[in-house]
What does this fold into?
Amino acid sequence: MLGQQQCERILKEVLECAKTADEAEVSISTNESGLTRFAENYIHQNVVERNAQAKVRVVLGKKLGFGSTNRVDADGLREMVERALQTARLSEDNPDFAGLPEDRGPVPTIDVFRPSTERFTPRRRAEAVSRLIEACKAKGLRASGAFETGLREYGIANSKGIFRYQPATVADFNTVVMSDDSSGFANASAIDVYDLDVDALAREAIDKAERSRHPIDLPSGEYPVVLEEYAVANLVGFLAYLGFNGMAYREGRTFLNEKRGQAVAVPGISIWDDGLDPRGLAQPFDFEGVPKQRVDLVKGGMACDPVFDHQTARAAGVANTGHALPAPNSYGPIPLHLFMAPGSTPKAELANGITRGIWVTRFHYVNPVQPRQTILTGMTRDGTFLIEDGKLTRGIKNLRFTASILDALQRVEAIGASTRAFISTYGSTVVPALRIGSFSFSGATTF
It folds into this structure.
């Protein structure tokens, strides 16, 4: 970790090197990650990775040039800027480029750095993993997965006065526990490693692997389902990516072009993006240094607004919501700090009232089929169960689903009272489990 003073020195140094450009933007990101990886009941890797990367964007009129390096000494930074300037000189004009954003004032200070996570030792990670492995050996099961603790920092500055810095810590534990014909999964993330109950996650995965032994076949078709938080996070992430991108909205490529302001889910569903909420991986500014703000995506079942970055906001004549991705970016702005409001039903009671249905732990290999209709296809994985008269009775072989996210949200019958957080490279998702009255499964597997 470089620290704030060192990051600020690098930002200033690069801006000075790029002063011949009409405009310039520089970012610095670092990552220090301690990782304990295990497979087949054996810890096979215990490593520490440290990396720092600088990026620069330079503007010559309407020409843009980009450069990056993980050499953050003076020579490496100077060479990066020279490459970016040369690229800009050789580039064609970008008539749609609206310039770099200006400073809009200070951003809130959000403390998402925990020394306890920074100081968590490899021995502590290994001891936690060892307890899982011993429990699996006692039951004839095999555990694989990873336990990671690390810290990140991100700084950004431009020639128009923006100057930002944010450090954070992240801890993540995930495991797949397997028998010869079953598997169970558990995962959680946190800013503070002591907020992860690794032993409880181990029990969760072991229980799923044991209960799903000797799975039975179930024909494809429409079934009521309970989706655990893992599966819900997948659906919400795709909904944000496909539906609430300001560039896609301007180009008429999202359901929001037709359904903005209309009901797209049951009234109990509210989904929003908030980079200021420390329950996720909070970051108070985007990858252009623009302050983030909360944006309601679905409120009380009604479709709300897309998110914007500087370029798409200027083109649309609307306010910038602070959702830029790292440049160069061809995707457009995307909500990265997602939340779904919990309900009032304890997770253990979500299956109540289902005569015959399916309990889904998580999805795997999910891809869009018809993005505008939010239709996805993918597989269930690592804990799929038959629900009979409100009880989980048997493990079932995994199924392929082909379903619309919006259709699923319009069929929600109950919302879990608790949420779980999942942290990714750039953001986080915090969601409850859901009971959905009908969900389409289009095929089955042999496992």
